[in-house]
Design goal:
single chain; alpha/beta; twelve-stranded parallel sheet; 4 helices; globular; Transf_Hexapept/Carb_Anhydrase; Gamma carbonic anhydrase; Trimer_LpxA-like_sf; LbH_gamma_CA-like
């Protein structure tokens, strides 16, 4: 019994002052919201950046130097989602797939190529992006839509089911329609955007840390030992 009591004593929680200090030190630890769903497990490359507040669920493959930013939801439940190298999925984007259970002809994945930019708050549903495709902020891609390599969907556009944005084309509006060919500077901007976000992601991966709340910081300050 004495041995058992000694073991319990070693495992007991430290006094409140020690607890406050430990809690404060533990806050910078990076938390990733990646979830398995049954046998469907996310596969994120070591060189990918997944923001702590993003949610990645099920069959989701994120390649090297790709980035999934804050408050994104990437849900690969009834089909898979793949995100290619150096592609950036910006803050607040929602990405999903399609299922024959909803009246379609079969489960449809979402496939995102390399060097793509997906702007803030975009919605992508069971669609395909070729390499170097661009989706503007708050744009929507419905089921079975495609942006071919180097195509651009303008901010706020709604690409309705089954439509295809051709290579080097700019589509916009709701519903989205062909507007004009991309200018050389716009095409170059797409690739530059992807390169820039690789750098942004490395900066965030190396430097992000969670700070204590005001109350936690105050508690830690008042609980710290005072040396004389």
């Amino acid at each position: 019994m004495r041995r058992l009591a000694a073991s319990i004593s070693k495992c007991a929680l430290p006094p409140p002052r020690r607890l406050a200090s430990i809690a404060t030190r533990a806050l910078p630890r990076r938390r990733l919201a990646c979830y398995a769903l049954g046998d469907k497990v996310p596969d994120t490359a070591a060189a990918a950046f997944i923001a702590p507040s993003a949610s990645i669920v099920g069959s989701v493959d994120v390649a090297d130097d790709a980035s999934v930013w804050y408050n994104c939801t990437i849900r690969g439940d009834v089909a898979a989602i793949s995100i290619g190298p150096r592609t950036n999925v910006q803050d607040g984007t929602v990405m999903h797939v399609d299922s024959d259970a909803l009246g379609g002809s079969g489960s449809t994945p979402t496939v995102i190529g390399a060097d793509c930019t997906i702007g803030h708050m975009a919605l992508l549903h069971a669609c395909t992006l070729g390499d170097g495709a661009f989706v503007g902020m708050n744009a929507t891609m419905m089921s079975h839509t495609t942006i071919e390599p180097g195509g651009m969907l303008a901010a706020g556009a709604l690409l309705t089911a089954g439509k295809t944005v051709g290579s080097g084309e700019l589509w916009g509006g709701s519903p989205a329609k062909f507007m004009r060919p991309l200018k050389p500077g716009e095409a170059a901007f797409i690739l530059e955007s992807a390169r820039a976000y690789v750098g942004f992601a490395r900066t965030h991966a190396a430097g992000i840390r969670e700070l204590p709340t005001r109350d936690e910081a105050a508690t830690a300050a008042t609980s710290a030992p005072r040396w004389r």
